[in-house]
Write a structure and sequence with these properties.
About 30% of the residues lie in helices and about 30% in strands. Strands 3-4-5-6-7-8 form a 6-stranded mixed beta sheet, covered by helices on one side. A two-stranded antiparallel sheet has the order 1-2. Strand 7 and strand 8 form a beta hairpin. It starts with 12 loop residues before the first helix and ends with a strand.
């Protein structure tokens, strides 16, 4: 079953009133189901990141750098991108309060990861932020 997302809500006032809107994503009942499945360890791919619970009982929010060539990656750019992912995650959490309920009721730590997309099949870890502490892999 696919996720129902629509980017254009300007011409649909009824739709705007019926759903929460964040980052050009409408929170439909299907998307709510997908968020709730995170607690069942089913990853959610949303807004160019993956949200999932790992075996260490942490909520992983993994994003990929927009940099195409690995040699062009800079720490400043990665910091900017991880901050963007954190802000989008906050907006999603605010628009979908059940997300924070899942985090709190399961005592999950939130880990923000940035990766370089290597040939679409693998990611090269760039950094991890946990508890405000940024740890570099590169």
């Amino acid at each position: 079953m696919g996720i129902s997302c629509r980017a254009d809500t300007a011409n649909s006032p009824n739709l705007r009133q019926a759903s929460n809107v964040c980052c050009n994503i409408i929170y439909t009942s299907q998307l709510k189901e997908r968020f709730l499945k995170i607690a069942d360890r089913i990853p959610l791919h949303l807004d160019s990141c993956t949200i999932r619970i790992n075996d260490n009982e942490s909520l992983l929010v993994t994003g990929w750098t927009g940099t195409i060539n690995f040699e062009n990656i800079t720490k400043n750019k990665v910091i900017q991108e991880i901050n963007d992912k954190k802000n989008k995650f906050k907006k999603h959490s605010d628009a979908f309060p059940d997300m924070m309920t899942i985090i709190k009721s399961n005592n999950l730590n939130i880990e923000f990861h940035m990766q370089f997309d290597y040939n679409v099949n693998a990611g090269i870890g760039l950094c991890l932020e946990l508890g405000g502490q940024l740890n570099w892999y590169i």
